[in-house]
Amino acid sequence: MHEYSIVMSLMEQCESLAQQHQAQHIEQVELKIGMLSGVEPALLAQAFETFKLDTICHHAKLVMNIQPLVLQCHNCNQQSQVDERTIICPICNSNKTLVVDGEDMMLMQLVLDT
Ligand SMILES: [Zn+2]
């Protein structure tokens, strides 16, 4: 499953960050999940709970922040936030837009316990 490989690389990222900061545990993992990232939050949470047991994250809490889409319109030059999967500008209905945010998933913050 897609989410499983995401969580595995996330865990690796967590382990190396914890090592860098000489942390013994990770208390909290905060993620930003873009609406168009293709990541299903429920599946991701499930994968996280399954994998964390054998890692430094074994009692970490997962916090997921869903990032709505942010579109920059080339027609009316407005930037808008939309809550649906669309690339149509809500102001002028143009499709000449650029997705500025909401396409990726990233690790925002780790709370470490030393
Ligand atoms: Zn527009």
Provide key terms for this protein:
114 residues, alpha+beta, hypothetical protein PF0899 fold, three-stranded antiparallel β-sheet, 2 helices, 35% strand, binds zinc ion
Explained architecture:
- The chain has 114 residues and is α+β, with helices and mostly antiparallel strands.
- The chain has a single domain (3-113), classed as hypothetical protein PF0899 fold.
- It is 26% helix and 35% strand.
- The protein has helices at residues 2-20, 41-51; strands at 25-34, 61-67, 69-73, 79-82, 97-101, 105-113.
- The strands form two sheets. It has a three-stranded mixed sheet with strand order 2-1-6, with helices on one face.
- The radius of gyration is 17 Å and the shape is elongated.
- The model has no long low-confidence stretch (mean pLDDT 94).
- Zinc ion is lined by residues 73, 75-76, 78, 89, 91-92, 94.
